[in-house]
Amino acid sequence: MDFFHFSFYIVMLLVVTGGIVGFLLALTGGGGSIVCVPLLLYMVKVPDTHLIIGTSAMSVAINALINLAAHAAKGNVRWQTGVVVSLVAVMGALAGSQMGKITDGHYLTLPFSLLMLVVAGLTLKRNHLAGTPLPSPHAAVHPAIVWPSVLALGGLAGFLGIGGGFLVVPALVWFFRFSMVEAVATSLVVVAAMGLSTSASYAMSGKVSIAITCWLIVGGVLGGVVGVALAERLKKREDIINVLYAVMLLALALYMLFKSL
């Protein structure tokens, strides 16, 4: 496949893939790379797994920035926390991406999909307890737990070549007591930072396709518009966003488990 002279069919597949990524990022703050990687691998049939990881990291980061602008215009982003979390997470992502480039991705599928199942279960549990008031700010998690966890989160995201939004969103909710909409919007700051750092690491090894990235971004812009609009409509119905988010994780986890068997 010549990645710089696509057929119309391949272009459409790339735009659709980008649209799904942009929609999920805007609505849930996560799921971008988790969807992008298997779609590029199995639907578009890009043969180089590491090229897929590096390219998807870049496209997800840029899509996250685009959707971040839309959320910021609506006042949903908690900038100070987002920037600090990003700085810590990026340190982990840079270290993790170095390990990821020398690891066969096949061996990461099973533990990663199990992790997604755990996060989905915890998200549904939080949704079940949505009527219970959140702890006061004085009951916030101790920094000695928060920051090593954020560093580890970044390392895991870099290692797996993902934006990490599906981990960042619950982390912002559990550690910083954000509402779901605030967590989704602010997670895009972190996803963009980690995605850019991971893709930069892969780009230095020649594992990023600018042509593929451009078509993914075209689709991502279109999907992001729909996702932001839906997220805003559901702003006062966080239970619906929680369920959609958990269902997305469950579906992706089961798919990855099936492919790993």
UniProtKB/TrEMBL annotation:
Membrane topology: Multi-pass membrane protein
Keyword Protein biosynthesis: no
Keywords: Cell membrane, Membrane, Transmembrane, Transmembrane helix
Residue ranges crossing the lipid bilayer per the database entry: 6-39, 51-71, 77-95, 107-124, 144-176, 183-204, 210-231, 240-258
GO CC aspect terms: plasma membrane
Cellular localization per UniProt: Cell membrane; Membrane
Membership in a protein family: Belongs to the 4-toluene sulfonate uptake permease (TSUP) (TC 2.A.102) family.
Protein name: Probable membrane transporter protein
